[in-house]
Amino acid sequence: MSDSTTETTASKVDPRLLEILVCPLTKSTLRYDAAAQELLSDQAGLAYPIRDGIPIMLVDEARRYEPTVG
Questions:
Q1: CB burial string 29-52: b at 16+ within 10 A, e below
Q2: Which CATH number among 3.50.50.60, 3.40.228.10, 1.10.3810.10, 2.20.25.10 corresponds to the domain 3-64?
């Protein structure tokens, strides 16, 4: 996928939506990773995918990751 395609996909995510979404498991705030098209919950160690500009906020659809400290 080219950078322009990634930017186009990323721009489809409504910034207002990103401000109000929280992790469904912990209710903690999320970090937006535009490059990976994921919303990251550092508290839960889960990355929620964004598909076609729509955040998939299901724990079963999230992938586990090790949060970085810092």
A1: ebebeeeebbbbbbebebbbbbee
A2: 2.20.25.10
Q: SS3 for 13?
A: coil
Question: Phi, psi at residue 26, to the nearest 5°?
Answer: -110, -15
In tens, the pLDDT along 27-41 reads: 999 999 999 999 999
Strand partners, 54: 51
Q: Show the tokens assigned to 36.
A: 């990976």
Residue 26's nearest CA partner among 8, 11, 15, 40 is: 40
pLDDT in tens, 9-59: 445 788 899 899 999 999 999 999 999 999 999 999 999 999 999 999 999
